[in-house]
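Entry 12.
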Amino acid sequence: MTDRWVIHLPVTAPDLHRARIFARTAARVLARLSARVEPGGVTVSPEDQQNVRHWVFCDRRLPGGARCALPADHTAPCSRRAPWLNRR
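Predicted 3D structure (C-alpha cells):
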C-alpha cells in the first residue's frame, strides 16, 4: 500500500478548450498553496469517457530538470513559466 493518495475532483465545462483553461487555472492556484500539487499530471476527459484523457500541460523536461509550464498544445518554445504570467 502507498502513503500517497490522489484526489479526483470532477468539475464540468462545456467543451475541451474551456476544460483545459479551467484545469490550468485550478492547478496553478493549488500549486501555490501546496508543493504536493503536480500540475504536469493534470488531464481532462469527456464525462462519459473518463478513460479518454487530454493533457493540460506540456510538462516536457527542460535543461536543469524543470518542466515546461505551457499548455499541452503550445507552439512556442518550452518555458518554465507561461509568458503571460510574467506581465504585471
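Annotation: The radius of gyration is 14 Å. Residues 16-33 form the longest helix (18 residues).
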